[in-house]
Amino acid sequence: MPASYAYLGPEGTFTEVALRTLPEAATRELVPMVSVPAALDAVRNGEAEAAFVPIENSVEGGITTTLDELVAGTPLMIYREVLLSITFALLVRPGTTLSAIKTVTAHPAAQPQVRNWMKANLPDVLWESAASNADGARLVQEGRYDAAFAGEFAAATYGLEALETGIHDAENAQTRFVLVGRPARPAAPTGADKTSVVIWQRDDHPGALLELLQEFAVRGVNLMLLQSRPTGEGIGNYCFAIDAEGHVSDSRVGEALMGLKRVCPQIRFLGSYPRAEVDPEDVRAPRPGTSDSEFTAASDWLARCQDGRF
Questions:
Q1: pLDDT tens digit string along 221-274?
Q2: Tell me: the pLDDT tens digits for 121-146?
Q3: Under a CB-based contact definition with an 8 Å cutoff, are residues 278 and 84 in contact?
């Protein structure tokens, strides 16, 4: 397996900046790819050890392209996550003024994060989507658009200048990125972990989603993300991407997943991995009755009942 990480390129993306915060990135060849699917396919095809891609932002929620790629195709697994604070700069060719801008481009996930700024400052400008924010900067360099929303750090790479900086509609906006590889044994629990799965309903009936969520609730497992995605099998057919607190080796999480496996026609495990920027000392204790020791005690009690030793 090549000692390389594929990532959403080209050079100068927020994805690259986030990837370089991982210590192991310094020992890998970092290979920019034209899209999220291309980065993930590089892992599936054995061309890269792992892929680093955006999966969620605090303004619009899940990045649907990434979620859909993880839902379908050969299974992959998440090993790490990184949070990156996001602010945009308006990059232009040198000498361009705000009044001269007629077209602007960026990744589709950027638009909701700068929509109000555009309404106030560029109300009549045409928006066109790019494969990534850095790719938008490249297209401006080539003269195909007048301006691009991207990281200020991308200006030097593409010979542009930042006409405006610090652009964001929401304070403290963040994007979550994940390191994805081929399935293997998850890393040992850290005490501040997250488990990601995708589940499919057996059939559509009143309370069907509630029944699935109760598998987590009754075991004291907190959910951090719940997003529906169409299955492609007709209107009203959805699967659900879920992030839950805890590690698959935690009794409460493991039993919740077993409960789901009994009632779901399909469930895809996407990994258990450390939560970004969370100290295990700050993680709240499990609710009473849901710790590993209490699950073990309950299992021992049942065994004694079955043996007539109660």
A1: 999 999 999 887 878 788 999 999 999 999 999 999 999 999 888 999 999 999
A2: 999 999 999 989 999 999 999 999 99
A3: no
pLDDT in tens, 70-80: 999 899 999 99
Amino acid at 92: V
| Burial of 218 from C-beta contacts in 10 A (0-12 / 13-18 / 19+) | middle
Total Cβ atoms within 10 A of residue 268: 18
Angle at 98 (CA atoms; ends 93, 99), nearest 5 degrees: 120
Name the average pLDDT for the chain: 93
pLDDT above 70 as % of the chain: 99
So what's the pLDDT on residue 71?
A: 93
Angle 208-217/251-263 helices, nearest 10 degrees? 160
DSSP per-residue string spanning the chain? --SEEEEE-STT-HHHHHHTTSGGGGGSEEEEESSHHHHHHHHHTTS-SEEEEEEEETTTEE-HHHHHHHHSSS--EEEEEEEEE--EEEEE-TT--GGG--EEEE-GGGHHHHHHHHHHH-TTPEEEE-SSHHHHHHHHHTTSSSEEEE-TTHHHHTT-EEEEEEE-SSTT-EEEEEEEES--PPPPP-SSEEEEEEEE-SS--TTHHHHHHHHHHTTTPPEEEEEEEE-SSSTT-EEEEEEEES-TTSHHHHHHHHHHHHH-SEEEEEEEEEPTT--GGGSPPPPTT-SHHHHHHHHHHHHHHHHT--
Q: Is 131 exposed, middle or buried (0-12, 13-18, 19+ CB in 10 A)?
A: buried
